[in-house]
Amino acid sequence: MTTSTKLSDRSLGWLRYIHRKAHTPDDWSKEGKPHPHWDDRSDPPLASYPRFDLIDSSYAMGLMAQTTPAWREPYVAVLDQLLERHTGWWSANDWLTQFGDDPNRKDYPDMYRFLIPPELWGNYDAPGWTANGVEPYGIQMDPVAADGMLFYKGFFLVMLGLRSMIATDDRWNEPFKMIRDGDNTFEWSHTAIAAHLTNQWKDKPQGCHCENTKVWPL
């Protein structure tokens, strides 16, 4: 069995594409908006938010780094760009704007029926509606500290872990600011997020919430 030590032409094309995409300036603050090349349309209602494009774009960096470890610097540079965006307001725009029950729950398209118990159709939020503020949790503006948003902090930890696996420094284990919207500015680090999520699992062994009231049962 031989181990490949170079990237295929297809992989090189993907690396060129994601490197250009990650280094194209845009603004993920509340006052800005992600560049249109960050996908916010695919796989509604669960994944049609631009942060999922950050997450899905990161996996290849880990795989490529195993094949061509001497190219560490460009892989880390891409991951740093993805991670930096994931600290901005737009990385959690659903959590920061979807308060209470979905006002459109009675008007969901039929394609959502497989996501919702039949007897609750029209009176139940589809997965993907984060429901910040519903009882008994109340409004929690920090998407990492919140009882919900498991997928937000979980996928962020995957990205941080990929970067940690490849890089020689520990940049993201130093405290960094997230969301950065006036009073809604929160400080975290790689280790602090991992410890917080570990404690959430310990406190709720039945599972942590993704959207509020929807436990991830694994």
Protein traits:
two-stranded antiparallel sheet, 5 helices, mainly alpha, globular, 2 strands, 36% helix
Please give the share of residues in helix: 25-40%
Major beta sheet, specifics?
2 strands, antiparallel
**Can you give the mean pLDDT?**
94
Structural class: mainly alpha
Number of DSSP-assigned strands: 2
Low-confidence stretches: none
Kindly describe this structure.
There is one protein chain. This protein is mainly alpha-helical. It has a domain at 38-97 and 126-203. Helices cover 36% and strands 5% of the residues. The protein contains 5 helices and 2 strands. Strands 1-2 form a two-stranded antiparallel ribbon. A hairpin with a 2-residue loop joins strand 1 (176-181) and strand 2. Helix 3 (72-86) packs antiparallel against helix 4 (150-166). The longest helix has 18 residues, at 50-67. It is globular and about 55 Å long. It starts with 8 loop residues before the first helix and ends in a 15-residue tail after the last helix. The mean pLDDT is 94.
